């Protein structure tokens, strides 16, 4: 991210042309690389050995986050923790593969499918491996699912329901059916960039075509301040405020008023003025209408201050991770805060709006005290997080 390397490549699968797919990998090798204690490794290998790709990725990201937070202990202090998996209809790609085999051989249907087609399978796998016995659920909000998960975890911590809550943004495994529907709706981009895939995702650029499908997962561990301080935890940042609101429609059309309202409500929750914000990690999908709408909403919120706010879009580097996007981009915000840089907008050559603080095509140094991370979803779901750097 700091190097400004793009993960979007040529992709012949499903006729996409370009995508930010995860490179081929081996679950057992990735699991072994974590160097887990023997019994934890055994539980993880057993639980994740033959589950769908998205569930394997959820397990690996949750393990990585837990190791970072608590160390590679045999028994992590997670028995009373809560768990939220952000995403709904997570694995249609897996279901499509099973359906193809079933249509050819009617006797074919693994009994495990009765578990794997349910999003809650992720909750079960993670709780089994990590020993979580608190509350657990999935949260759906289309492309705002990740932020919705973080928001719900923040509320649980804030109101004393939990001291620790894991939020996993699940990888969205799309099938050719969903991808073709997005293409028919005019939402997918990349048609003009098949020979230059790294140029395909162009948030806020005049030459943008639509979003680029990305695969990814991330996990954040939220913890009460008292709990974190008591155990001497490394605190990467604080969720200072979070908000969500609806546009009162079921379509894909975004709303300037709704997006601005979500940002304003989150700032109000954080007791923070727009002038105090240093950075915005935008929803910025490279869509024709979406980017135009968000640019106007940002202007409504920040006014004259818009030229002094650093603005970028992580999707320009990795594509649109859909359900996981909010968690991935909140993590990206924390990384930039702690390492004091803003990643580039690689393909922002001709901005759709002038006098904005858009980051250029190269990484720039930055002192970020307060940041906003936006996610908006079909059905008029608007979400915004205010993240403050740990002092």
Automatic annotation (TrEMBL):
GO terms for biological process: fatty acid biosynthetic process. It comes from the Bacteria. One of its GO terms (cellular component) is cytosol. PROSITE patterns: KS3_2 (PS52004). Keywords: Transferase. Pfam families: ketoacyl-synt, Ketoacyl-synt_C. One of its GO terms (molecular function) is 3-oxoacyl-[acyl-carrier-protein] synthase activity. Belongs to the thiolase-like superfamily. Beta-ketoacyl-ACP synthases family. PANTHER family: 3-OXOACYL-[ACYL-CARRIER-PROTEIN] SYNTHASE, MITOCHONDRIAL, POLYKETIDE SYNTHASE-RELATED. This is Acyl carrier protein synthetase. It comes from Leptolyngbya sp. ISBN3-Nov-94-8. The lineage of its organism: Bacteria, Bacillati, Cyanobacteriota, Cyanophyceae, Leptolyngbyales.
